[in-house]
Design brief:
The protein has 213 residues and is α+β, with helices and mostly antiparallel strands. The chain has helices at 35-44, 47-58, 70-102, 162-165; strands spanning 4-5, 105-111, 117-123, 132-135, 157-159, 171-173, 192-196, 208-212. Helices cover 28% and strands 17% of the residues. The strands form 3 sheets. It has a 4-stranded antiparallel sheet, with no helix packed on it. Strands 5-6 form a two-stranded antiparallel sheet.
């Protein structure tokens, strides 16, 4: 529960990771142009498929095989077609799930020219590095976030990491200690610089420094 406010470092022109065009989530493996080469590469990097490919090829060489190569080739083709149809079906489902996830709504914190606080409902793909984001109870995080403020008692948040590690128990997190941030409105006058490590697969540790101006 609680609210998370996130503000990331402004992108550097020399950092290709931070200069991503959007916050799009992509779990699909193929598109129309890449399906065939990627699928065939995945199949024939497996020893069994490579063996049957070589066998089917040699079966057309009369010096090596006394039988026609039609049978071995048809058998290999049938197996590849079935595997290809299965791969396409699974990837279509991933494309649909990605589309639903990317259209999910989150809440971006903005201040207009008069300094008035505004909360904008935007899709996940519209979130950029440096945005401040509000996450409400039972909502998913739209990106990697740094907790700046919580309106729960004792200034804590309770989060679930089920989608990451399968654990269903709530974990307690506290915002970073920045005295200048004691309310949502205080974000108006705070400028933060965050230096963080490159993306990695460590779910439980994060190294970085943050400075407030």
């Amino acid at each position: 529960g609680g609210r998370w406010w996130q503000k990331k470092e402004k992108p550097s022109l020399n950092d290709p990771v931070l200069m991503k065009e959007d916050n799009r989530v992509t779990t699909s493996k193929y598109n129309v142009a890449t399906f065939l080469p990627i699928f065939l590469f995945e199949m024939f990097t497996r020893v069994a498929y490579l063996y049957f490919l070589i066998q089917a090829g040699l079966s057309w060489w009369s010096v090596v095989s006394p039988y026609s190569g039609i049978g071995a080739t048809m058998a290999l083709t049938f197996v590849l077609v079935v595997a290809g149809v299965k791969a396409i079906w699974e990837d279509v489902k991933r494309h649909r799930e990605d589309e639903i996830l990317n259209k999910s709504i989150t809440h971006r914190v903005k201040f207009d020219e008069d300094g008035e606080l505004r909360i904008e409902d935007v899709s996940w793909t519209d979130i950029k590095v440096g945005d401040a984001v509000m996450v409400k109870d039972d909502e998913n995080f739209p990106a990697d976030l740094l907790c700046l403020y919580s309106d729960l008692p004792d200034n804590v948040c309770f989060i679930k990491t089920t989608n990451l590690d399968g654990e269903t128990n709530l974990k307690i997190r506290k915002p970073v200690d920045i005295p200048a941030i004691d309310s949502v409105e205080s974000l108006r006058s705070v400028q933060l610089t965050l230096r963080a490590e490159s993306p990695n697969n460590n779910l439980h540790n994060f190294k970085g420094t943050i400075a407030a101006a």
